[in-house]
Amino acid sequence: MTKKQKFYLQIIGLILILIIAIRPLAIKLADNLNTRSKLTKRLTGLEAKLNTLKGIDTVLIDERVKRMEIVFPSVKPIVPLMASLSQLASDYNLSFGGISLSPGSLSGGETGLNDLRFGFLVGGDFGKISQFLKALENTAPLMKIEEVGLTIKTNPLFDRLETIVSADIKVAAYYQAPPKTLGNIDKPVKLLSRNEEILLNQLVSFKTFPPVLPQTAVGKENLFE
Amino acid sequence: MDIELASKTIGRIRKTGRTKWFLNKIIIWGSFGLSLLLIIIASLNLWVGSSNRILNSRIKAREKEIEANSKIENQQLYLNSKLASFGTLIKTHELHQAVAETVFSLIPSGTSLKGFEVTETGLIDLSGTVPSWQLLSRLLSNLEQPASPLTVSQYKIKEVNFSGAGDLSFSLELRLKI
């Protein structure tokens, strides 16, 4: 082997070392740096999310969720609806009955908003019924008067002091199921906008009634007493 | 007088020698440089790798903390999802309430209302019965008066019928100023 050939072999050897040893190391370093930048970004996002979560007032959000659940429930509000309507009717000294229920429409889809149609009869003084109707749409759970039919029970020509009427009212109550999953842990927490805060404050204006809990029928505990 | 013998050959040999010396230096320094580069890249790799491991452990710790706060996150998500629909409902609700309140403020006591229906265009079909002409004229005069919270911008008497018992049934079409 001549000296010239030996020299060329050394050069080729160097290039091979460069390709075999340094190149993969350099590629791995680039990968590691790329991972590092991704991890740093993820950590920043998670820290921001954690700070947001820690900044939320737990008592306030608890209260808001409870209030929202009363006004705009997640499940069909049959029992709260009946409890509210009967108690509201009794507040205005009106008779309450003739309840009819229909499944309502499932407008569902993306929003998952559902409604429940509910019919009932209230009877009493016309003025009180008018006040009852005004109060109805400000009572929890959220409902809308769909139809009103009024029938006079007393003749105003003979009984001028008060007009007893019977009102056949059909209302729609709304409910919406909550989201099923939280989603990805990296998903940032969306804080409420100013308008949403105003909306939440409107929840307070809804009149609520205590739920009517069914009393379990208990038989005689001691048969010999 | 200097006599240079084979000066050209000596010059060529010197030049070749210098080139070889120079190339040998390049190879030595090149090898040294490459070794240094290898060490630097390997060290950097180790350092970045360990820093990534630290970052990963910090991420895991943050994830655990976030999971510990999942109740708050759930509640926030719940409010966000509900508020979108609630906002729309409240808007229509307020309008509907105003319409209902206006209609009830217009009806004089003693009127038997069969029902009222609000169409998409804001027209209200109002029908019912009144026991006397006086009540009907009061209802019509109420329509002329400024109502609250919405005002009647236009109304049309569609139908008035007498019944044998002296009652009057009516059908009106109202347009409220929204």
Explain how this protein is built:
Chain A has 225 residues and is of the alpha+beta class. The mean pLDDT of chain A is 80. Chain A is rod-shaped and about 130 Å long. In chain A, strands 1-2-4-3 form a four-stranded antiparallel beta sheet. Chain A has two domains: 1-55; 62-179 and 191-204, 2-Layer Sandwich (Alpha-Beta Plaits), CATH 3.30.70. The longest helix of chain A is centred in the first third of the chain and has 53 residues, at 3-55. Chain A is built from five helices and four strands. Chain A has helices at 3-55, 58-71, 78-91, 126-136, 194-202, and strands at 95-102, 113-125, 143-152, 164-176. Chain B is α+β, with helices and mostly antiparallel strands and 178 residues long. Helix content of chain B is 62%, strand content 21%. Chain B has helices spanning 7-68, 70-106, 133-144; strands at residues 112-118, 123-130, 151-162, 168-177. A four-stranded antiparallel beta sheet of chain B has the order 1-2-4-3. In chain B, strand 1 and strand 2 (123-130) form a beta hairpin. The longest helix of chain B is centred in the first third of the chain and has 62 residues, at 7-68. The radius of gyration of chain B is 48 Å and the shape is rod-shaped. Chain B starts with 6 loop residues before the first helix and ends with a strand. The model of chain B has no long low-confidence stretch (mean pLDDT 83). Classes of the chains: A alpha+beta (225), B alpha+beta (178). Chains A and B meet through helix 1, helix 2, helix 4, strand 3 and strand 4 of A and helix 1, helix 2 and strand 1 of B.
